[in-house]
Fold this sequence. Notes:
This protein has helices at about 10-15, 20-35, 40-65, 70-80, 90-105, 110-130, 135-150, 150-170, 175-190, 195-210, 215-235. By secondary structure, it is mainly alpha-helical. Helix 8 (about 150-170) runs antiparallel to helix 9 (about 175-190) and helix 9 runs antiparallel to helix 10 (about 195-210).
Amino acid sequence: xxxxxxxxxxxxxxxxxxxxxxxxxxxxxxxxxxxxxxxxxxxxxxxxxxxxxxxxxxxxxxxxxxxxxxxxxxxxxxxxxxxxxxxxxxxxxxxxxxxxxxxxxxxxxxxxxxxxxxxxxxxxxxxxxxxxxxxxxxxxxxxxxxxxxxxxxxxxxxxxxxxxxxxxxxxxxxxxxxxxxxxxxxxxxxxxxxxxxxxxxxxxxxxxxxxxxxxxxxxxxxxxxxxxxxxxxxxxxxxxx
Length: 241
């Protein structure tokens, strides 16, 4: 990454003092200098764009700390557009796509965030393949977003993808599957499919009980949710999917 004129040592000191307003002004000044500087040949333009990307990243960071979320989002959008220029790596695009989705989500715009999570997932699958651990995280991010929009069926299907991939990579007895089974059990409950919910919580417990001391809290939670599903199932007061 090309060197910036801003003194990162000063920024580090200001950050240790919690003076984020001063840090913001440093990066805004850096941004202004880059925007007004004359662009020479193609090589110099690429250098300036790389510097601009780093400044935008720093501005996103400090604006989030200052709770200036619309400003942070605007910088994220600009940075994302920049990553489509020559000289940037797909990792930069994935990073900004995820950053933008998170900023939209914390501003209660789950639908827009979901579109960016979906775009990030599609690009990640194309770039890294479905068996990459980062693809697992992308499926989970999408699932949680869909659940927040009460799209329980979509969330269930996304988590099912995460489950299937983890089973392929780590095998059917991997501890990490327990948490996914519990999440799928919760979504099945919300979908009124209590029989499936019971099965999934039992699968989670079978993995968690391999280490009952270390997993005590999760075991208690799974047992509690299993009892709740069994109680509603026994009462017969809801339809099955």
